[in-house]
Amino acid sequence: MASGPFLATGAAAALPQGYRVPPEEAAHELTFMQWPVTREVYSDRFFRRMSQRTIAEIANAIVEFEPVIMLAHPDDHNAARRLLSDRVTLWDIPTDDLWCRDAGPLCAVHPTQGRAISNLNFNGWGNRQGHTRDGRIAAEVANRLDFPIYDSGLQGEAGGVDQDGHGLLIAHASSWINPNRNAGSRAEITEALKRAFGADRLIWAPGVVGQDITDYHIDSLARFTGPGRVLIQLPDDPDPYDDFHQAALETHDILAAEGLDIMVISEPTRPRNHSADFVASYANYYVCNGAVLAAEFGDNDADDAAHDDLAYAYSGREIVMLNVDPLGELGGGIHCATQQLPANSA
Question: For strand 229-234 and strand 68-72, is the pairing parallel, antiparallel, or unpaired?
Fold first, then answer.
């Protein structure tokens, strides 16, 4: 491994052969999270405080199972500390928003050379949101950890692709083959993504362009639960005029045609939050050491069914369900707000 961290550029800078991003259910050293402060998003101080409290509740739940590092500007440490468990560690890395899955460090592991950061070059979901601080987080974490950092040659977000850790990726083309992120061809983007994750196969589904800030990240719809096994959230009564419903059904059919073992989880039908753009995704859960953290939406029957489905998919792990409605109002969930640092042996 290199003697110190570096941000390489150009074709030779890609993640070297032999590295891979482990599956999320592999052992973690810790979880990274980000403290949300940007006035661009949180101009309402009451909603900003609600969002910060939600992030703190997630961190405080995770730290019962593994260490948590909260990234925040030093000026924000006092406010964060008042809400965070004493067991959560604060690092002096400035943040804009809370979406650590996308802006945080994507870590790959080599069997003999240790760990490295595979940089997806977060650009605010196609420059839809300012990211002066968040665009630097991956490199700053690499520097703090003294990990090498390799340039994927892409602009994108880890929430836009899911991996089984055994060579297979799934993604919506809308989040990657999109001029607001990447100008390359499908073939070029496919190869770069496979290299960035240490994978050898990528299944594309079309997704939805331009109707949410992420261009329909896959992690709110479909997640690997093991090699070749996928959990996907679908509506019980699909709306033929809802582009997301129709895209979800199309993604399901593509994954089924590829021979994956699919488990369907039903979306809530009576969530307590009725905002038009509210994201109510059970699939946007986070797997940490010994537990799965997922959202509950106040639809008791659907919440209970989701709990049971996750317990079946992740046998032996505790299922912890939290009210994270402020994240749903922002268009995301618990997975979007977390990023794991895999153990060196993962």
Answer: unpaired
**Distance (Å, rounded) from C-alpha 333 to C-alpha 278?**
10
Residue carrying structure tokens 């003999």: 112
Strands of 89-92's sheet in order across: 89-92, 68-72, 28-34, 339-342
Q: Which two tokens stand for residue 4?
A: 């110190």
Query: What is the rounded distance in angstroms from the CA atom of residue 22 to the CA atom of residue 107?
Result: 8
Per residue in 54-94, pLDDT tens? 999 999 999 999 999 999 999 999 999 999 999 999 999 99
Which tokens go with 92? 């002096």
Residue 11 burial (10 A CB sphere; 0-12, 13-18, 19+): exposed
Count CB neighbours of 68 within 10 A: 24
Sequence-separated (6 or more) residues with CB below 8 Å from residue 29: 66, 67, 341, 342, 343, 344
The amino acid at 332: G
Rounded CA gap, 155 and 183, in Å?
10
Contact 338, 62 (CB under 8 A): yes
Coil, strand, or helix at residue 45?
Answer: helix
Task: Give residue-wise pLDDT tens across range 147-204.
Answer: 999 999 999 999 999 999 999 999 999 999 999 999 999 999 999 999 999 999 999 9
Q: Bridge-partner residues for 69, per DSSP?
A: 32, 89
> Residue 11 and residue 153: Cα distance in Å, rounded?
7
Question: 3-class SS at 161?
Answer: strand
Q: Model pTM?
A: 0.95
92 Cβ partners below 8 Å, 6+ apart? 72, 73, 74, 77
Q: How many percent of the chain have pLDDT more than 90?
A: 94
